[in-house]
Structure formats: structure tokens, C-alpha cells
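Render this sequence as a predicted structure.
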Amino acid sequence: MPLVAGIDSSTQSCKVVVRDAETGALVRQSRAPHPEGTEVDPRAWWDALRAAVAEAGGLADVAAVAVGGQQHGMVCLDEAGQVVRPALLWNDTRSADAARELIEEAGGGEAGRRFWADATGAVPVASFTATKLRWLARHEPANADRVAAVCLPHDWLTWRLAGAPGLAALRTDRGDASGTGYWSPRTGEYRLDLLERAFGRRLRVPVVLGPAETAGHLDPAALGTGAAGPVLLGPGTGDNAAAALGAGAGPGDVVVSIGTSGTVFAVADTPAADPSGAVAGFADATGRFLPLVCTLNAARVLDAAATLLGVDLATLSELALAAPPGAGGLVLVPYLEGERTPDRPTATGALHGLTLGTSTPAHLARAAVEGMLCALADGLDALTAQGARADRIILVGGGARSAAVRRIAPQVFGRPVVVPPPGEYVADGAARQAAWVALGGAAPPAWSVGDTEEYATEPVPAIRARYAEARERVVDRLPE
């Protein structure tokens, strides 16, 4: 039975899973932490990957490996392949002004947003790599002058696994490339003119591979494992595309992933181009498309509420379920770290409806869960407005482990909710891609996700109605 490995290099940690290529059965797994912050030296990711691989027993017995990574992060390399400066991550909002500049330079307003949506499938926001390149050119010209190539976190790690064999060997995939702001899902080609518009000159970028093409072979010396048989490197992909692959999402499924960020995405046969900027028209890891809405505030809203109440997450869940639906009118608008959807990078959170009756830990816990889910439900509305099917919700990510989140989600989303077993779905998706590369074939192998929990549709419209009222009070007072 051939084995394959999947790596998830996320914001918070590096996870490694080793699975049977044909059945998907888990053989072993491990993880190692990443440093906190919105900018990180990529070498910290490499150190964590090496540590996680070692803890997982190495990769000498696997046939292929692929990397799923956090999207958008700007990794700049000089001519020698050395990292120029710490990578700016997706959640670094200092490039918000750069995003606005790029829209204005394309005509501003509706015309500027339409230009970018048509060109790249998405309207620039602070998260995207193109805006970070503009920030670098404006604020760190000496570093900008040194940059010869730009790539994404998963691109860089795949390149390092291959032994860092020169900038010409950089490889990526269409899923991750579609989050840069200078690649078109519609045409399948780079828009290097837009990269030049953002940065001031053209840079070397990774070659975009097809879903099951190989990015080369693992260099045994890179991991210090000594001699090993030839191990194929999959193209890898962005974390959301990997999660869709790992969760087995198909047409009609909408994946809601509650991690550091919150994402709502659907598998589609046609590319999306939303000039409002709410929906990013990304590509997926299988040759189709992945229209996606992202919020900056997700599971850490629960962490913040638990800290505020002085309880752990399990107790927060119990408290939330002890309060009535709608939390008696108490609403948390959860823009605790700015927000991407809506695009308000300077926003802060707001609590509405605080009365003597709602001044209880249970009401606050419920408001935190409902507020986080309502923000994600806004994303679901944006997806369906772009034509995405939403027959059911697949709920994944660390936040899905909360009983309160699982039980309240059908009330907020108004659709059936399916919760797969807790797992590392980004790493699993990367492993499934690696199996596709190792085994060949027209499609990735069919793996079961295991027993799922299913929650029937149970809409409570008052929850979202009250949230919408509170949200508008916040958004109306913030500059665009």
C-alpha cells in the first residue's frame, strides 16, 4: 500500500498527516507551532515543517507529498533565493491603503472594482499579495530593490522540499495563484502587467501547475533524512482549496471553515467575478473554481469571549446553549481585528442590546457564537447572489468542535449542516492531492471522511435580522 503525506502550513502551526494513498486511512500525524504575528520569517515555517515531519516519522516511506498553505502571504526572494524580509501574511492589514490605490488607479468606484473583478476574479483588499507588493514598494524601497521573485508560503515550502534548486524551479498551483491579484482564473494565465502596476516592475513568479502535475522530487538532504527512494512533490495549493478537497466537497456543498479566519466557499464549474469585492473568484485544486468569502474574525471571537468571561471554550459552549436563540436581543458585531468582509480594516467590535436582563455570561457567550456565525452567513448570502448552489453546509475547522457552534449553525444558516469528524482537512486535502499525483488518474482518489454529524434545517430569522441592524450601525460609521 503506497503512503502519501499532506502538509498544512497554516497561520498558527504546521500539521503533517501520512495516509494510505488508495483508502485515505490515517497512518500517523504530527504538528509543530508557528510564531504569532502578521509578519513571519519564512524560515520559521521551514523549521516547524522539519520538526513536524521528524515527529511524524519522516517521509522516507511515502510515494508523494504535497503542501497546503495559508493564502496570499508575500514571500520575496533575491537573486540568490534568499528571503528579503519577513513575509507579510494574509491578516496583515497595513496594505489597506494600497488596495484602495489600486482600485482608484483602475478608474475608482464601480469601474475600478469591475476592472479588477474581470481581470483577476477578485477586487483588491489588504489580504492579497498584490497590495502587499505595493506597500513594500512604497514603504521599504531598499528591500523592494532587492526582490527578484515573489511567491506564496506553500510555493516556498514546496521549493525548499525540492532542495531550493534556483528561482526558475518555483512552482505553484491555480488555487493559490488565484489569490495573488495578478493571476486570472478565467484565462488561467498571469497578469504580469498588474503585478508591474502594483510593484513598479515585473518579478519572477512560480510556474502554475495543473492539479495532478508534479513539482519535482523531494530532496532527502532538505529534511536531513539521508537516502530515500524518489518521492514526488505535488503542486500543493492554498488552504481553502485543500480543505475543500479534504472534506470531499462537491456541487451543491458550501464549506464553512472556522479557523483563524472564517471562510465560506463552494465548488463551481464557472469562475466568479463579483465587482462588490465580497466574493473572491478563486480557482480550486481540481480544475474547477472556488468562489469564496473570507472574514478576518472567526474562532478567535470565541477565544476572546472565553477570555472575557474567564472560562474555557467548553464552558463557553455550555453557557451559549443555556441562553435563548437571539440572546435576548444582545448582539456582538465581531470585527475584533478589523474586517475583510465587509472591507473595513480599521473596524473594531461592538456590543448592542446590553440590558440588565442580557448582562449575563450566558447571553454574552450566545451573542459571541451567533455574531461569528452571522458574519459567515453574510458570506453565504454573497455566494448565492453570485449563483452558487447551497444545498447543505459542511462545517469544518477548530470552531466546529464547539457544540454550541454546531447546534446554532442551522438556526443562522437556515440550511442542513453536516459536521465531519474533527480532523486536519487542509493537510488531508494536500495528502489527497499527493495521492492523485502518485496514483495518476483523471480525478483524485475517493476517500471517505468518516462518520458525520447531521443537523436539520432550523432557521431562526430573528437572529440575523437583529444582527443586520446592529452591523449596519457599525459599518455606517466607518470610513471605506
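Summary. The chain has two domains: 3-240, 248-415+450-479. The chain has a mean pLDDT of 94.
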